[in-house]
Specification:
Helices cover 85% and strands 0% of the residues. The protein is mostly helical and 106 residues long. The protein has one domain (7-102). Helix 1 (7-40) packs antiparallel against helix 2 and helix 2 packs antiparallel against helix 3. It is flat and about 55 Å long.
Length: 106
């Protein structure tokens, strides 16, 4: 049975998730901007590395949000939401694994 979440717990979860999302977008933006500047200045290897890192960070940001949510729900012993977020995380992992295994566009 899930426990009732207090407004303070809900606010804390929203703050943590907001921080994770802002940090992911900020780091991604910095990497992409620096990669673009290096690319325009002709420094290809470093530019490619930064551009790829920026894309990976941007793609990992929503996954990080799900992980943070799962950890918070487990800490709160809210098993219903913990189970749901674990299912979402497993679906994200399965889709990434399928993309790597099949390596084809749909």
């Amino acid at each position: 049975m899930s426990s009732a979440r207090t407004p303070a717990q809900a606010a804390r979860l929203e703050r943590v998730i907001g921080l994770v999302l802002r940090a992911g977008v900020l780091v991604s933006s910095v990497c992409l901007s620096a990669g673009l500047l290096l690319s325009l200045s002709g420094v290809e290897p470093a530019a490619s590395l930064l551009l790829n890192a920026g894309i990976v960070v941007l793609l990992a940001t929503p996954v990080s949000r799900v992980i943070v949510s799962t950890v918070e729900y487990i800490a709160e012993r809210d098993w219903t939401f913990a189970t749901l977020t674990v299912v979402v995380l497993l679906e994200l992992i399965a889709s990434a694994a399928a993309a790597l295994v099949f390596k084809r566009k749909l």
